[in-house]
Structure formats: C-alpha cells, structure tokens
Design brief:
Helix content is about 25%, strand content about 35%. By secondary structure, the protein is α+β, with helices and mostly antiparallel strands. The protein starts with a helix and ends with a helix.
C-alpha cells in the first residue's frame, strides 16, 4: 500500500502482479482512504507534493529517487528510512546516501548500489511520510550486452541484450532521461523474458548518443551514430547492433520491396521459386567475415551478378497495409515479374475496433450542469467487434456500481447514472470502450451547483482609525460552481448579544470598511458568501478595536542608492505592520559618524515617497540614516541605521589583482592568494574588497563564492567535488564597481598534492585468527593522492564474490559476513596511483575450537618412564598449526601439570615415574582458537615393594585421677526482697565426689525441709521458696572427701516490705503491667528530698502499686487454689477408693476453708478496686468477677463436700483413732508434699533458666560450628598450601641433588686434576732425584780423584745440591698435605650436606605428621608411602 500511494496509476497493475494481489476493488477502496489520510498528514508540513519518482539505477551508476515538494517551514527535518531504520545522509555525493536539493526538487541517491542496499525506502518530513519506494536488486547479469549501432536518417535502430535470469522489465535510458514505450521508442520482451529489445524509430541526428540498458544494478552501454542519407531520400530500413552474442543469433527477417532506393520492410510470402523469396535476412552465418557483415547494409532489390541466372517468378511490388471502414470497399494489390503466373490470397481476421458516432460523441462531450441533490445521466452508443469491455471513470478513478452509481450496458450502448449528486461529485467523466482491435474514449464534464463554502480567513485589518475600521478576507475555497455575487456583513459590539445587519457588498472585492464605529469600542463581524444557489455559512472575525492608537512598525534599514560629494540618494521599503491604518508619510533622520545626535532631514513635513535625496551634507563626512513610518496615530519606531556612507563622488573600478597563485588544495577545498591591484589616479581606484568566483569545467556559468566582499588577499574555496576541474578567478571591487577578473591560464583540479601511496597503521596486525562463522572485517587506512586504485587479492587471485570491498579516499574495508575455513589465506591489498603503488599482506586464519584427540594408550619400555600415544585429532589435517599438550597428575600431588607442549606428533615419553603412585594423563589439541576437551588416559601405576611398617608404641602409665575438693565457682552475696524466693548456687569438683553440706549461721540445712538442696553433676544449689527476715544472715557450703575439705560462704540480705513499682498502661487493652524496680528509699526519705507535690504523687503511685500487688497476690492465690482443688478432687477420688485410710482429710477440709477465705478476701479487694477512679482496672475487675463466680461454685461444691463429710462423720469415727495415729505422719507428709511442690516450682524456674542457658549455649555452639567450618576451610587451604610446599620441596630436593651431583663431579674432576699434577710432580721429582743421585755419584767419584782444594769446592757444591734435594722433598710433602686437607674439606662438606638432608627429612616428617592429623586415611597412606620413598631415595 505504501508503494501504491507514491506510484503512478499506470504502474498499479504491475505492482499488484508482483505481490499477487487480485482483489482490486478492496485495494482501490483502501488505497483511496490511505491517500486521504496521507494527504492530511502531509498538509501539516508540506504545501504540495508533485512529480514523485520511484527509485531507479541511473547511467552514472547511482540509484536515485526523488520528488518535488514545497515545505511550510524550510527548516523542517527530512529523514530517510530503510526498512524502518533511519539512514544518515548528507549533501556530499561521495557519501553512501546523499540528498541534492535544487529549489523545490529533492533527489536522494545511493552511491555504488550493492545487493545489501535493497530494501524499502521512505522519506519523512517531520512525522509525515511523503515518499515510499521499493529498491529490488535481482540476481541478474548480461550474457550479451547491447552493441554500438550506425544508422542513416529515417531508419530504425535496434539495441538488443540477453539476460541470465528472466526479468519482466529492464530500464532503457539515455544519459539524462529514461525511455518509455511509445511512438518514438518501442520496447519488446521475448516470451522467456531473457531477450530485451529497444527500437529507436525514425532516427534523427538528435538521436545520436549513448544508450543504456540497466538490469538491477548491472548496466550495459552502447552508442547510436546517425549519419546523413547520401541519396537524400528517406529510408525505412532497420539497423541493429552485433547480434553474435544473442542465441547465435536471433534471426530477423525483413522482406524487401524490390525497389532500388532502399531496403523497405514490406513482407512477401516466399512462393516465387528457387531463386529467392523476396525476404532480406539480417543474419550472419559462421563462415562469413563478421566484421564486414556488421557494417554492411543489407539491401533488397535487383543486383547485377557476374552471371545472370533465372530466378523464377518474383514480387516486383508486394502487399501493403490498408485501412478501411466497416461496410466500405477495400482493395489490396501486388505486382509479379511474370504475367502468366497465378497466385493465391490468404486473409486473416479483419480488424473491427470500437467506433463511436460523431453525433453521439458531440452530445456526450457537452458539460452536464445540475444542482446539488439532482441526478446526472450519460448515454453512449457504440459499435465494433465483440467482446467489448466498458469502463466508466471519474477523475481517473474507476466507477463501480454502488448505491449512488448505476451502470447499464448492452451490446450497443452503455448508460451511467449518478444519483443525488453532491458538490464533491463534480469532475471529469470518461468512458473507455475496448476490444481486441483497439480502444476508444470519450470525455464529459459534470458540474454540480451548490451554495458556496464560507469565506476564508484569516481576516486582515487594513485600517483601524478613530471613526472607521477596514478589513479584508479571502474568497470561499469553493464558489459552489457559480460566481459569488455578494457578501453579507453582520456586526456585533463586544459584550452584547445582538447582531446587526450591515447589508450586502459586491462579491468582486472581499473587503469592507465600517465607518459607523464608536472610538474605544471593540466589534466582531460575520461574513457570508452568496451566489445564485444560496448563502454560505459565516466566517467570524476576531475582536477589532476602533479608535485605538496603533503606531506602525519599523521599516527596513534604508539603502544607499548613490552617493556624491553633495548629495546622497536613499530608498527604503514600507513597514510590514502599518498599525491598522494607512501610512501617510515617513521621517528621515541622519547621524554624523562620531556623534550621538540624530537630526530630522525632512523639516518641511513627512516624506510621502519611499525614496529621498539628502543634500544637507558635507563633503568627505560619514553619515548614517534611519527612517520611521507615520500613520493616523503618529510616527512609529525608527528603523535600524543603514551602512555608513561617505559623501564623495563615485569611484573608478579597481584593476586586476596580481600574483594570483594556488597555496594549497585537497579533494574538497583549495586556497588562493594574490596581491592588491595597483591604484592609478583617474583610471583605477583603490580596491576595497574582493570576490571569488569558480566555474566547473563542464558549465558555462560562474558561481560567486562570497556574497560579501572580503578585505583579505587570500581565500579558501569550500565544498568542491573530488577530482573535479574548476576555472577560478578573482575580482577586485570598490564603491565604483567591480574590476576586471583575474584567473589562471588553466583549470585547477580539486585534489591534494601528489602523494605516493603509503599505509598509516604501523602497528596493524598481519596475522588475524577468526572463529568460523564470525564476521571478518579488515580496515586498512592509507594516504594517497590522487585517488588510487585499490585491488584485493586472496593468495594471488581475486577475492571471492561473497567478500565485500568498500573503498574510500582514506581507506578500504574488506568484509566477510560469515566466514568459513575456506576463507583462510593471505590477503593482499594493493594501492596504486600515478605516483606509485604499495602493497600489504594480511594472513587470515578461519578456524574453530579443535576436536579432542582419540584414545590415549600407555606403554612402559624403560623403568621410571611411560610412553603415551594417541589417535590424531580430526582437525589435524585441516589445520597445519594444530599441536598437542600433555599434562599429568599423580595420586600424591593431585594437581595437573603440563609436561609437554607444542607437540606436532602423536607420541610422547614421560620420565620420572615413581613407583607406588598412580598417574593420570590428559592430551589436549590446541590451535590458534584455543584448547579442545581433553582425552584422558587410563590410570597408570607401578606397585612398590615395600617392607613391613613397624610402629613402636610407648609404654602406658597408670594415672591417678583423685583430687581434693575445691570450688570452681564460689558462692556470691545476694540480696532478695521479702516474700520472694531466693536461689544460690556454686560449682565444686573433687575425686572421689565430695560430700556437700549447707549451713545457715553455722546450722546445717541438709535436713531442713524449708530449703531445697540439690547437687547435680557438681553444681550445688539452695532454693528458699519464700524469703523472710529469719533467712537473713551467712550461708556456707562445706565440701569434703578423704583427701581434704573446702568451704565457701556468702551473705543473704533481705530487703524491706515496701517496694516501688513502675506502672505501664496500654490504652487499647485497658490493662496494666507492673515491673518491680530496685529497692527504693522509704516515703519519709522521699518527703525530705522532694516537695509536697512530689510526695503526694509518690503516695498515689504507692497506692496504685499496692493495688497491683494485691491483684498479683489474688491471682497467685487463685491459681494456687485451682491447683489445690484439682489435687483435692484427686485425693477425694483416692479416698473414695480407700476409705479405710482416712489420711489427711482434716487437712484437706482446712485447705478448702482457707481457699474460701482467700476468695472472699479477693472479692473484697476487687470491689475496692472497682470503687476507685482508675478506669484502667475495669477490664481486670470484670475478669476477677468471672473468676469469683467460678470460685463461688467451687466453694459451693466444697461446702457440699463438707456436709457430706459431716454426714459421714459417724463412719469416720471408727477410723479416727487410726487417723489420729497417722496424723503426725500425715502432717509431715503434707509438709514434705508442700516442700516438694515448692521444689518443683523452683525446679521449673531453674529449668527455664537452664533452657535459656541451653539456648545461649546453642547459639555459642552455632558460632563455634561456623568457626569450625572456617577453621575447616582454612585447614583445607593449609592442606593445599602443604601440597604446594611439598611440590616446591620436591623441586628444591631435585635442585639440591642436581647441585650436589654437579659439585661432586666438579670435585672429582678437581681431585683427578690435582692427582695428575701430583703424579707428574712425583715422577718429575723421582727423575730429578735419580739424576741428582747419578750426578752425586759422578761427583763423588770425581771428588775422589781431585785435589783437596777441589774437594772443598765440591763439598760446597754437594751441600748446595743436598739443600736443593731437601727443598724439593719438602715441597712434595707440602703438596701431599694440601691434598689431604682438600680431602678432609670434602669429607666435611659431605657431612654438612648429610646434616642438611637430615634437617630436610625432619621437616618433611613434621609436615607429614601435620597431614596425618587430617581425617583422610588415603592421604596418610600416600604420605607414608611418599615418606618411605623419599627415605629410600635419600
């Protein structure tokens, strides 16, 4: 629907066919409704919308669409949407989406359209839609493109192309316009919709130029060259382009007419004989010279062959088309080359198009004029071949039968009747009659007369004077079909209800002047239009004031028309706001530059014209002028001053600028500089400014860049088109006019200085890894001038079609929307321009997470090693960078460690496999994307043959747990109020358990029934049920066993009877609670400290407290009484069963009497409280009444029971003696029972206290549990830390062992070298010694032969030799000692190393002992095994 709104009606059928719409009636109805709604929306922001152009791909390669519209507000926002998403655009044509505005013409364009640019485009002004178009990019290519054609004048030229995909329509166009099927151009499509043909009929010289065939975003271009006919005769032949590219190619037969002058296209039947059929075939066969045949014009008619051959009978003149009316005679003739031949004629169907009689057509064409509510009727007879299709239209909308539309059609006539026509039903009525042979139309016009619509506002007040008010309005929008004759005017004074008739005025002038007004009053007017059919509704004006002073507004600033040394000519425009009255004149004021005084120029009176010549000026002075308008109310505000003008004679225009040069340029701007022109007096005056003008090389008009002259001698031109050529010139100007322009000898190209291409991103990645399926986006920024050619290659070949390349002047982007593994490779971008070229390689690897390797197998060929082998990952063949990682974990460390990485084979040997541990292995496949899931090996372990583990248990010693008694918690001093219970306790210990004795004032209490003494698990307690004055004093606990005695004492302080209570009232429940406060001073002390008023308040509070205490005691007594009654009932039941005993009867009767007395006391107390003024006690009194009633009932039952006992006294007399005998024991039993009850009460209180302590203990236990959890977590962390330390210790141990081995090896090498040196020295010394001994022997023998003097010398030399021998022997001994020292040092170093190893073993044993404390038996066994292994290794 959006497309149909903005589409011409002739394209409705095509769009409906594309979308499969068949219900045209509903579609047209809905379309008209949407058009009306859209028109109302557009009227808010647009005055009118015309010439809507759907999107089409133009010959320049851009997709364009646009419209003509006039906006209410030129600043309204114009938004472009694609598929509902806003698309940014600009006015630069280098952008992807751009808008070009020329006056009211708006053209949107898409640069270099691609398949992804297809979509539904909308143009909105503010929130109103003004254009909608659907851009479809079919997947089509040209199998055969159109070819160049040459033709003579008056011939037809044919362009033909073949598509790869069937299309219903392609676009044929010239450089500046699209071509449509019509009289000049014939567009045909083959049945398979693959071959599209354009025929240019009757070619003229003006048809020369380029022709384009555009299919989707693909285009084909060819030229048509029309040449003059050398014979000067009109020819009706056909010229086509090269058809070799078409289906080999489509055969086009053209029958000749046999004449000499041309190759006419008349048809023949081909029955003439063997020589020919009179048909001219424009087809080139395979053996012919194609180039010659393309240019050769095939002619028909007789040719002069080299050898004359009998061609048989031929058509000299063929048949031609004939037009004839039905019923008339028609003649067809042809001429043969032989008069004796016979022929046959074959006729096809005779055309019988629809025909309308001229008289009926004249009657139908007359305008039908009716009044509103009447019926209009048309009748049209016709004739022609059946079947006929009749269609009635009104204003190009088809009329269909409805309530007010009646259509009757027969075989020879059709009638249309419009019932009860209204004014809106007027318009053009057209009937279209169509059959298979043709179509005819007839047009009529309907005018419905009615009363006019109301006059149009707004009402403009032309004059509001003291005695008159004049206003005007606009004529009615619809005059009702006949002219408006009069306007009826009514008036009402504001504040009154009466409307008075002012009469009628002619309808030619929609204005009225009311001269009968009262100054200061306000009036309202009604205006009605009248024509021959009636009177319209009224137009009511606003309040119009009469006699109110309204001054005119300010005129525009006056303009200087010309200036001389003694005169200045000024002109101005009237103000827009006249103040409601006519302008009667103007006041002109002047101000001499440098002063603040404005003087009136027109001293003689107001200026009635809008121009004035000021002559009261001084030569060379500078002036400013302003003007004020005057109406009947007076002069208004003056205008703003005009530009400063100097009184001097006109100047001579300046000369040309000099030294014009280009200082800088880029793709959108260039900067110029020049020198000021030389001033020549009397010929060329000084230049006061400069204008810059440019002209594109393809245009003839100059465009001025600056509207206001600039004073600088440099300027930068903006907004140029990249690589466009411009002519540039500079014009100097002054008050005398413009000088001659100065330009360059050649044009300037909008481009920066030439720059060799180079890439900007130095740190750009040359290796990119992308996950398969993700988007690949490479942005390459470069710098080059002029704009370079950009070429992308993949592995040396052009990139695939699914790769999108987007280029700009500063960079290029390569985009792969959804990458695959096949997209991996080396991508090369080459940037080339006229200066040079530069290339960059980027390797892109598209991969995915690797799949895990296959199962892992374990083999042990060498002790303490294991060899892992696995099946390769399935991705190994597809990814040459895929490798493997091996990690291991043992049962001792329990952490995974990588033992091998970057493995490109499928086998690896792990060393340092220790026996007694279980090993786990994982193999990962890794590529540039990451790790695969692991493939885990089976558990590998070597059983360790270990010896028996013996544990030396220490000897146990018997312990003596006996201890003397002592106090853990001693007694503490307590203070108890009188009448309340008191509880004291202490904690003791001792083995055997000590005996506990309580003393009060050195008197034992263990056998006293008034005190409840307990000893539970060493906690000794004493309970006093009711504290009295006699309980005051010292209490002591003595504990003793066979090992000793201990005691602890405390003091019990009993407070007085009087206590102070705090009363707390609750308003909603009307009850109060009493809280006992700490011991308070007696009232006498309070009276001394406070005033009388406070004493009274205190006494009153004490009274309330006493009452509350009485109520508490009453409540307690009532509770006790209920318990006793219950016990009594139980005892009575027992007595009935065992009447022979009779124990405790009198005590029970006495207890019942006491309960009755307490109930009476409680009743009296309740009545006393009820008589008091405390309303808060009423609820409690009511409750006590209820309880008293219950007590009375119990008392009554007790009395009845007593009477029953009295009646049975005779029976009891027999057992009285036995009862008296057991009375003493019964009284003791009662005391015991009472003591037991008090003990139970105290035990309950203690139980409550213990429950509270248990809850506190539970809370502490929960806190301790949380602490234990935290401790447990910390222990786990410590365990992990210990594991880590063990690993580090193992690593340190290995390092120490390696260092020790290196040190031992170095020492061995050193020792061996020293030993070799010593051996060498020893051998040398032995050799020397032997030689010396030989020499000595020789010397002695010689000495024996020599004289004595010689012997003396010899003795001296012998002594020297002996000294040398001794010295040598001594040095050898020293070397031997040094060697022994070195060996000792080595032994000491070995001893120290052993000590260090032992210390490390002890630390490890301590760590193992800490780990043994954890409740993990497996860890303990592993650590013991590890310790054993470490010991064995050490």
């Amino acid at each position: 629907m959006e497309m149909l709104i903005c589409t011409p009606k002739k394209d409705y059928e095509k769009i409906c066919f594309e979308f499969g719409v068949t219900d045209f009636r509903w579609l047209l109805k809905r379309l008209n409704q949407l058009k009306k709604e859209r028109k109302d929306e557009q009227a808010k922001v647009v005055e009118q919308v015309n010439n809507v152009r759907q999107i089409e791909v133009q010959p320049n390669g851009r997709a364009e669409f646009g419209l003509d519209m006039t906006l209410h507000d030129p600043n309204s926002a114009i938004n472009l949407y694609k598929d509902g998403t806003m698309v940014p655009y600009g006015d630069d044509e280098d952008l992807k989406h751009s808008l070009k505005t020329t006056g009211t013409k708006y053209v949107f364009s898409i640069k270099d359209p691609q398949p992804e640019d297809a979509g539904f485009y909308q143009v909105d002004v503010e929130d109103a839609n003004v254009l909608a178009t659907d851009f479809q990019v079919p997947a089509v290519e040209f199998i055969a493109k159109i070819k160049d054609v040459k033709a003579l004048e008056s011939e037809d030229a044919i362009f033909q192309c073949v598509l790869s995909t069937p299309l219903n329509r392609i676009t044929w166009s010239k450089q500046d316009s699209s071509l449509e099927h019509g009289d000049k151009y014939e567009i045909t499509i083959s049945e398979d919709k693959l071959i599209h043909t354009l025929r240019v009929k009757d070619c003229k010289m003006g048809d020369n130029g380029a022709y384009y065939a555009i299919a989707g975003i693909c285009s084909s271009c060819a030229s048509l060259k029309v040449e003059a006919d050398p014979n000067g005769k009109g020819r009706m032949g056909t010229q086509t382009g090269n058809q070799d590219d078409l289906t080999n190619l489509q055969k086009t037969d053209a029958a000749g007419d046999g004449g000499d002058g041309g190759d006419g296209d008349g048809s023949g039947d081909g029955s003439g004989g063997d020589g020919g059929d009179g048909t001219n075939k424009n087809l080139l066969t395979e053996g012919e010279d194609a180039d010659d045949k393309k240019k050769k014009r095939v002619r028909t008619g007789p040719l002069v062959p080299d050898t004359v051959i009998d061609r048989g009978v031929q058509f000299i003149c063929g048949l031609s088309d004939t037009v004839a009316n039905i019923g008339e005679r028609a003649e067809l003739s042809c001429k043969l080359s032989s008069e004796t031949s016979e022929g046959r004629c074959f006729f096809s169907n005779i055309e019988d198009p629809p025909i309308i009689d001229d008289d009926a057509l004249g009657k139908f064409a007359k305008t039908v004029i009716i009044k509103a509510g009447e019926n209009a009727e048309w009748k049209m007879p016709f004739s022609g071949g059946a079947p006929m299709t009749i269609q009635w239209n009104k204003d190009d909308d088809e009329l269909l039968p409805a309530l007010n539309v009646k259509i009757e059609t027969s075989a020879t006539e059709s009638k249309l009747r419009l019932v009860k026509c209204q004014r809106k039903d007027g318009g053009e009525v057209k009937i279209k009659i169509k059959n298979e042979f043709g179509t005819t139309e007839a047009i009529s016009k309907l005018i419905v007369l009615d009363k006019p619509t109301p006059p149009q506002g707004p009402v403009d007040i032309m004059e509001s004077a003291v005695t008159s008010a004049e206003f005007k309005w606009k004529p009615p929008k619809d005059s009702g079909g006949c002219p408006v004759t009069n306007y009826i005017i009514e008036r009402q004074q504001v504040g009154r209800n009466k409307w008075s008739d002012l009469g009628e005025i002619p309808g030619s002038d929609p204005s009225y002047k009311d001269s009968d007004v009262t100054p200061g009053r306000r009036y309202c007017y009604r205006i009605r239009a009248k024509n021959a059919e009636g009177i319209s509704d009224y137009l009511q004006t606003g309040d119009i004031a009469a006699g109110v002073l309204r001054y005119p507004g300010s005129p525009a600033a006056p303009k200087v028309v010309s200036a001389f040394k003694d005169c200045i000519n000024l002109a101005w425009c009237p103000p827009c706001d006249t103040g409601g009255t006519k302008i009667v004149g103007y006041n002109l004021e002047k101000n001499k530059k440098g002063t603040n005084y404005w003087s009136l120029v027109n001293q003689g009176g107001p200026i009635t014209d809008t121009k004035y010549a000021v002559k009261d000026v001084f030569e060379g002075a500078a002036y400013e002028f302003r003007v004020a308008a005057i109406n009947l109310s007076g002069a208004g505000d003056p205008s703003i001053p005009c530009e400063t003008v100097i009184t001097r004679d006109p100047m001579k225009p300046p000369g040309k600028v000099t030294d014009l040069k280009l200082t800088s340029s880029n793709y959108t701007t260039f900067s110029l500089a020049w020198t000021k022109p030389t001033e020549v007096k009397g010929v060329e005056d000084e230049a006061q400014g400069y204008y810059m003008e440019i002209r594109p090389i393809e245009n003839l008009e100059w465009t001025r860049c600056n509207a206001i002259p600039i004073t600088l001698t440099s300027y930068t031109v903006l907004g140029l088109k990249a690589m466009a050529s411009y002519w540039v010139r500079v014009i100097a100007t002054n008050y005398g006019g413009n000088g001659e322009p100065q330009g360059f000898d050649s044009y300037i190209i909008a481009m920066p200085p030439p720059v060799r291409p180079k890439f900007k991103d130095r740190n750009m990645k040359t290796f990119v890894v992308i996950r398969s399926g993700n988007t690949v986006r490479l942005n390459i920024n470069f710098e080059a001038s002029p704009l370079p050619q950009i070429l992308w290659l993949k592995d040396g070949t052009p990139v695939p079609r699914h790769v999108t390349i987007t280029n700009s002047d500063k960079g290029s982007q390569m985009l792969i929307p959804t990458s695959e593994r096949s997209d991996s490779g080396i991508y090369t971008i080459t940037v080339k321009n006229v200066v040079g070229q530069e290339s960059l390689n980027v390797e892109i690897r598209v991969t995915d997470d690797p799949k895990p390797p296959g199962p892992v197998e374990l083999n042990q060929n060498i002790p303490e090693t294991v060899t892992l082998s696995w099946t390769p990952s399935p991705d190994e063949k597809r990814d040459d960078r895929l490798h493997y990682i091996v990690s291991k974990r043992d049962s001792f460390l329990r952490t995974w460690r990588t033992v091998a990485d970057n493995l490109f084979n499928n086998k690896f040997t792990v060393i340092n496999i220790l026996p007694g541990r279980e090993y786990y292995f994982r193999v990962f496949a890794k590529n540039d994307m990451g790790l695969s899931p692991p493939s885990e090996s089976p558990v590998f372990g070597i059983i360790k043959q270990k010896g028996k583990f013996k544990v030396n248990m220490p000897e146990t010693k018997s312990l003596d747990f006996q201890s003397p008694p002592s106090f853990i918690v001693p007694l503490k001093t307590r203070t108890a109020p009188w009448g309340y219970e008191s509880y004291m306790s202490c904690a003791v210990r001792g083995n055997p358990a000590p005996r506990v004795t309580w003393y009060h004032n050195h008197i034992s209490l263990n056998t006293n029934t008034n005190y409840h003494v307990t000893n539970v698990c060493g906690v000794c307690s004493l309970l006093i049920l009711k504290v009295g004055p006699k309980d005051d004093g010292e209490y002591k606990v003595v504990i003793e066993n066979k090992l000793g005695t201990a005691e602890s004492s405390m003091t019990l302080i009993v407070r007085g009877e009087a206590t102070l209570y705090r009363i707390q009232f609750t308003e909603d429940k009307r009850v109060f609670n009493s809280v006992q406060s700490p011991s308070s001073p007696p009232p006498a002390t309070m009276a001394k400290r406070k005033s009388k008023k406070l004493q009274e308040e205190h006494l009153h509070c004490i009274g309330l407290i006493s009452q509350q205490q009485s109520l508490d005691q009453l409540s307690e007594s009532f509770t006790t009484m209920q318990k006793r009654i219950t016990n009594l009932q139980q005892v009575v039941a027992v007595t009935d069963a065992q009447t022979d005993t009779g124990l405790g009867v009198e005590e029970r009767i006495f207890a019942l009497e006491e309960a009755q007395k307490q109930a009476e006391v409680a009743l009296a107390t309740s009545k006393k409280l009820k008589n008091s003024d405390h309303a808060q006690l009423w609820a409690l009194h009511d409750e006590m009444d209820t309880r008293l009633t219950e007590i009375k009932q119990v008392a009554l039952s007790v009395t009845t029971l007593q009477a029953m006992f009295n009646n049975q006294s005779e029976e009891f007399e027999t057992v009285k003696e036995s009862a008296v005998a057991g009375l003493s024991s019964s009284s003791a039993l009662a005391e015991n029972v009472a003591g037991l009850a008090s003990a139970v009460v105290s035990a309950c209180s203690r139980v409550d206290d213990q429950a509270a302590s248990v809850e506190a203990l539970n809370a502490q236990l929960e806190g301790q549990a949380s602490d234990l959890n935290e401790l447990k977590e910390s222990m786990y962390l410590q365990k992990d830390a210990l594991h880590t330390n063990n690993e580090e210790m193992a690593a340190i141990k290995e390092l120490v062992e390696a260092k020790q081995a290196m040190r031992a090896q170095a020492l061995e090498e050193m020792l061996s070298s020293v030993q070799m040196t010593l051996d060498e020295q020893y051998s040398t010394s032995q050799t020397l010694r032997s030689s010396l001994m030989t020499q000595l022997q020789t010397f002695h023998s010689q000495l024996a032969k020599t004289p004595l003097s010689m012997k003396v010398k010899s003795n001296e030399e012998g002594s020297a030799a002996e000294e040398f021998i001794c010295t040598t022997t001594q040095s050898a001994t020293e070397v031997q000692e040094k060697l022994e020292d070195v060996e000792e040092k080595d032994e000491q170093q070995d001893t120290e190393d052993e000590a260090e190893n032992e210390a490390e073993e002890e630390e490890e044993q301590e760590e193992e002992a800490m780990l043994e404390e954890q409740p993990l038996e497996q860890e303990v066994e592993g650590q013991v095994q590890d310790g054993a292994c470490s010991d064995s290794q050490l």
